Description:
Mean pLDDT: 98
CATH superfamily: NAD(P)-binding Rossmann-like Domain
Largest sheet: 7 strands, parallel
CATH architecture: 3-Layer(aba) Sandwich
CATH topology: Rossmann fold
Bound molecules: NADPH dihydro-nicotinamide-adenine-dinucleotide phosphate
Structural class: alpha/beta
Number of strands: 7
Shape: globular
Oligomer: single chain
Distance between the termini: 39 Å
Number of domains: 1
Order of helices and strands: EHEHEHEHEHEHHHE
CATH class: Alpha Beta
Low-confidence stretches: none
Amino acid sequence: xxxxxxxxxxxxxxxxxxxxxxxxxxxxxxxxxxxxxxxxxxxxxxxxxxxxxxxxxxxxxxxxxxxxxxxxxxxxxxxxxxxxxxxxxxxxxxxxxxxxxxxxxxxxxxxxxxxxxxxxxxxxxxxxxxxxxxxxxxxxxxxxxxxxxxxxxxxxxxxxxxxxxxxxxxxxxxxxxxxxxxxxxxxxxxxxxxxxxxxxxxxxxxxxxxxxxxxxxxxxxxxxxxxxxxxxxxxxxxxxxxxxxxxxxxxxxx
Length: 254
Ligand code: NDP
């Protein structure tokens, strides 16, 4: 493997990696040589993907925590670093969707989306950064969304949380750069996962959106693997504070 893209001897924690985009990134990073720690809120969903990674010859482990339980999450992150000797890469990816006509957004729904998508991301990054500052190196990747900078009806709380993630990438990058830590946000477009399964039942919407995507297809979780490897490897060492669109070109097209 070209050492420029190697993650050999790196330890990576990916929140929300029991399935979907997080698992796609975890598989890619494991194939690039990292020890990957999978996470989700339910321990039962983590055993099968960890077993599959190990069966493929990769180094994988899991830690279950809910990103809305901040003390438990931060203790778990410290525990991962303790067990594996270090933490080189955090992908703060766990997220949920939220959509409703404007008048039907409740305070409870709003808070739930912010708690998982924004507060959970910030406090995961905070804990990882404190560990990485001691190591004087690290890479933090936050999963935002194209919707953080593009309007669509009904997704008010979701889009606001994702705009916040983009802002966090910039503030964290500016504070952590002097410590040798890079921070970037990914802004996926439409990726086929459980998160948007309800949306994909609207076949007219899927067709209209596919025709607007320059690459003429929705993404798959594996489409996020390359950018995660790139940012976490020596190849990405001078990239920080960016929000990178992984969207088949959608955000750039009229
Ligand atoms: P999925 O629903 O497929 O996966 C979500 C993951 O997050 C699961 O592993 C889930 O595990 C975990 N998760 C959810 N809530 C929590 C929680 N409170 N604590 C810990 N883990 C949690 O979604 P995607 O893979 O599509 O989404 C991943 C990220 O990508 C999200 O941040 C999403 O907003 C973002 N994104 C997705 C897009 C898409 O088109 N799919 C587009 C743009 C952004 P469990 O349920 O077991 O807790």
